[in-house]
Amino acid sequence: MTRPTAVIAEDEPLLRRELKDALAALWPELEILAEAEDGLQAIRALETRKPDVIFLDIQMPGMTGLDVARVASGRCHVVFVTAYDEYAVKAFERGAVDYVMKPFLPARLAVAVARLRERMSSAPANLEGLLSSLAERARPVRQFLRWISVAQGRTVRLITIDDICYFQADNKYTAVVTATAQSLINKTIKELLDELDPDMFLQIHRGTVVNINAIAAVHRNLRGRVEVQLKERNETLQVSTSFAHLFKQM
Questions:
Q1: What is the rounded CA–CA span in Å between residue 6 and residue 53?
Q2: Which end of the chain is more exposed for a tag (fewer CB within 10 A), N or C?
């Protein structure tokens, strides 16, 4: 009977040795064909050694474990090795063979080995759906503006984003309008749009961006133009024709 084979891809030498020793004790017949300390080495091992299983660290230099898993998808069984529970749970739920957490727990590794043994006779899973999901989760969360700094003489005043009713272009500056005050900042509407949370701020005119939470009502005036009425300000804001479609439900 042919012995099952594996590759271990883990960039930390001590953890790689620890995993290899644990596998030797739990699955003596498993033959470790190669060890890789980065993504490129892991792919070379996959291509040249063609293992039945790869124990694959998600975070590795060069190419990440997710990149390597794309190459391994459908070709060999994948066990993710990770220090990040968010990856591990998602991988397990979406049908990867299994996962093991760092630091390694013998009991958990024994469960992974048992599941691998059961699946060795079946075809390796296609991981494309899983990898797309994991890649999406791995992207850094975008950070939006939380406050605006306004210079007043020698003092710098901070205005939290929640307190801003709207921004309006004012020549070379932009007016920052709150319920009770108005200040000028040296930043364009375009620059602000790149930094503001689009779920919170809505551009309604080339020169106007309004806080959605500050809107009391939207209506049409006698000329049929759309206007925004604010909760805590008396003025109304004009919605240009280019942005009127945002209120087409009216």
A1: 5
A2: N
Q: Which CATH class is domain 5-138?
A: alpha beta
59 close to 65: Cβ distance less than 8 angstroms: yes
Q: Contact 226/247 with Cβ under 8 angstroms?
A: yes
The CATH class given to the 147-247 domain equals mainly beta
3-state per-residue secondary structure call for 23-80: HHHHCCCCEEEEEECCHHHHHHHHHHHCCCEEEEECCCCCCCHHHHHHHHCCCCEEEE
Full-model pTM? 0.56
pLDDT digits (tens, 9 = 90+) for 16-26: 999 999 999 99
Residue 127: burial class (beta carbons within 10 Å; 0-12, 13-18, 19+) = buried
Rounded CA separation 88/163 (Å): 40
The C-alpha angle 30, 31, 37, rounded to 5 degrees, equals 115
Spatial distance between the Cα atoms of 51 and 4, rounded to a whole number of angstroms:
8
Every domain of the chain and the residues it spans: 5-138, 147-247
Residue 138 CA to residue 131 CA, distance in Å, equals 10
